[in-house]
Design a protein that fits this description.
- It contains five helices and no strands.
- By secondary structure, the chain is mostly helical.
- The longest helix has 28 residues, at about 95-120.
Length: about 120
């Protein structure tokens, strides 16, 4: 039960921060979802760091990893919003933005996980 509460609280905190960043960074005039992109990239870096620390020398407890990685990062990042924003690009016929946003999101997010895990090895 304690683990469910940790994931619940972490997810709520992550979701709240994502909402705030999206409101601050998304551009209503151009429709470019900078906020979603930034949260997914930052969340990918954070999960790389968190899991890297957890693997490096067991410095993080299982409960801490659940709170930070599963809860916070799970609530902070958002695949569903990413998918919806891509739907909007396709619906409006903006195939270039769709392609750039999708490719950049996948490549940069994957890279951030690896960079986060790599950075932990050296610090």
């Amino acid at each position: 039960m304690k683990q469910l509460v940790l994931v619940f609280i972490g997810g709520g905190l992550g979701s709240t921060l994502r909402y705030g960043l999206s409101k601050f960074l998304n551009n209503a005039e151009t429709g470019i979802p900078y906020g979603t992109f930034a949260t997914n990239i930052l969340g990918s870096l954070l999960i790389g760091i968190i899991l890297g620390l957890a693997l490096k020398n067991q410095t993080l407890s299982q409960n801490t990893v659940l709170f930070l990685a599963t809860g916070f990062c799970g609530g902070f990042t958002t695949f569903s919003t990413f998918a919806y924003e891509n739907h909007l690009f396709l619906k409006s016929g903006d195939f270039m933005s769709f392609a750039l946003y999708t490719i950049a999101s996948f490549i940069v997010a994957f890279a951030m996980v690896f960079i986060g895990m790599w950075a932990v090895k050296f610090f």
